[in-house]
Amino acid sequence: DSGVTQTPKHLITATGQRVTLRCSPRSGDLSVYWYQQSLDQGLQFLIQYYNGEERAKGNILERFSAQQFPDLHSELNLSSLELGDSALYFCASSVGTGTGGSPLHFGNGTRLTVT
Amino acid sequence: GEDVEQSLFLSVREGDSSVINCTYTDSSSTYLYWYKQEPGAGLQLLTYIFSNMDMKQDQRLTVLLNKKDKHLSLRIADTQTGDSAIYFCAERSRWGKLQFGAGTQVVVTP
Question: How far is Cα B40 from Cα A39, in angstroms, rounded to an integer?
Answer without folding.
Answer: 14
